[in-house]
């Protein structure tokens, strides 16, 4: 978000919301793709409820199919079973959240805030739905070029697990299968193996 202070104007004369309590959680930019596709610079925010009972909300029918209150582990489990489709950034951030009891510890949440924009490098296999989104720290990620144009691999074995666990190749990536025409993503996995380097997110 270029001017976060302007966010509160979205609610001007319509309803009141304590926008000062929103925690700026992370920032993602859609990776470069070989074919022309829109790229979105998206900011994620967290909001801590002060009541033990979930509030009733109405979701935007133009952007969402449905809305429900749930735990991160439950929605990730539904994704694993194929009941829901999570875009890779949402899967990544929910994976971060479920690793700590963040709903009970506001200080821990603020320690995990990651304002640096993530731009995954999207690798694919010719003729396959397999996708690998490499993130900073991964040996496939070009730190000097956020708009790096990854090559298309000819063999799925070059990108798919199992990966070596000896630390010879540092990894920070998401692996999944994509039905891009339907915007559906399946079998998402997060692999982090970076020796001698501490990430605030994991």
UniProtKB/TrEMBL annotation:
**MF (Gene Ontology):** hydrolase activity; metal ion binding
Q: Which domain of life is it from?
A: Eukaryota
Q: Which InterPro entries match?
A: NUDT19
Keywords, ordered alphabetically: Hydrolase, Magnesium, Manganese, Metal-binding
The answer to whether the entry has keyword Metal-binding is yes
This protein's cofactor list reads: Mn(2+); Mg(2+)
Presence of the UniProt keyword Transferase in the record: no
Q: Which PANTHER family match?
A: ACYL-COENZYME A DIPHOSPHATASE NUDT19 (PTHR12318:SF0), TESTOSTERONE-REGULATED PROTEIN RP2 (PTHR12318)
- Which protein family is named in the record? Belongs to the Nudix hydrolase family.
Official protein name in the record: Uncharacterized protein
List the source organism. Answer: Heterodera trifolii
The lineage is: Eukaryota, Metazoa, Ecdysozoa, Nematoda, Chromadorea
């Amino acid at each position: 978000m270029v001017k976060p202070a302007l966010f509160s104007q979205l609610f001007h004369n319509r309803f009141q919301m304590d926008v000062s309590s929103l925690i700026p959680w992370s920032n993602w930019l859609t990776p470069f793709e070989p074919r022309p596709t829109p790229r979105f610079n998206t900011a994620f925010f967290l909001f801590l409820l002060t009541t033990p009972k979930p509030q009733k909300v109405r979701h935007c029918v133009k952007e969402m199919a449905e809305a429900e209150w749930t735990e991160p582990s439950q929605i990730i489990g539904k994704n694993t079973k194929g009941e829901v489709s999570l875009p890779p950034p949402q899967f990544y951030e929910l994976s971060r959240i479920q690793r700590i009891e963040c709903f009970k510890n506001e200080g821990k949440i603020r320690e995990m805030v990651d304002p640096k924009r993530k731009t995954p490098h999207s690798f694919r296999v010719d003729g396959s739905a397999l996708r690998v989104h490499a993130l900073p720290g991964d040996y496939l990620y070009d730190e000097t070029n956020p708009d790096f144009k990854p090559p298309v691999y000819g063999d799925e074995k070059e990108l798919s697990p199992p990966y070596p666990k000896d630390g010879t190749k540092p990894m920070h990536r998401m692996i999944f299968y994509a039905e891009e025409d339907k915007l559906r993503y399946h079998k998402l996995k997060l692999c982090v193996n970076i020796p001698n380097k501490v990430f605030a997110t994991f």
